Amino acid sequence: QVQLVESGGGLVQPGGSLRLSCAASGNIFRVYNMAWYRQPPGKPRESVASISSGGSTNYADSVKGRFTISRDNVKKTITLQMNSLKPEDTAVYYCAANVEAASSLRRDYWGQGTQVVVSP
């Protein structure tokens, strides 16, 4: 069984910063691409940032220059450093990972989500 657990959400004022973390655990053979998604209130889930096992990154235009994704392949963790936060960044943030578990085929796994609220 593979689990992804996020942490680090909360309430922050506009212009502030937050750091989200996600740890993958379980009977994992290999972790491939990892990513952060978010779902704003009343809107569909959207991609925020992704990072390959080799460290290549991609960002949504709305967060470029403000958010930074990084990963530790040994610890099987990713982080999302969010700076210059705006009210429109308010959302539930989800961690996702493409994982080859030791006992099953390679597939995507999702975390439970962590709430980020940007408000005065």
Question: How would you briefly describe this protein structure?
Answer:
The protein has strands spanning 2-7, 10-12, 18-26, 28-39, 46-51, 57-59, 67-72, 77-82, 91-101, 106-110, 114-118.
Largest sheet: 7 strands, mixed
> How large is the share of residues in beta strands?
over 45%
Overall 3D geometry? elongated
Number of strands: 11
Low-confidence segments, given as residue ranges, are none
Radius of gyration: 14 Å
Compute the number of helices.
0
The average pLDDT is 96
N-C termini distance: 40 Å
Structural class: mainly beta
Specify the helix fraction band.
Answer: under 10%
Order of SSEs, N→C? EEEEEEEEEEE
Which key terms come to mind for this protein?
120 residues, 4-stranded antiparallel β-sheet
Explain this structure to me?
- This protein has 120 residues and is mostly beta strands.
- The protein is built from no helices and 11 strands.
- Strands 2, 4, 5, 6, 9, 10 and 11 form a 7-stranded mixed beta sheet that branches. A 4-stranded antiparallel beta sheet has the order 1-3-8-7, with no helix packed on it.
- A hairpin with a 4-residue loop joins strand 7 and strand 8.
- It starts with a strand and ends with a strand.
Spell out the blueprint of helices and strands:
Layout: E1 2-7, E2 10-12, E3 18-26, E4 28-39, E5 46-51, E6 57-59, E7 67-72, E8 77-82, E9 91-101, E10 106-110, E11 114-118
Parallel strand pairs: 2-11
Antiparallel strand pairs: 1-3, 3-8, 4-5, 4-9, 5-6, 7-8, 9-10, 9-11
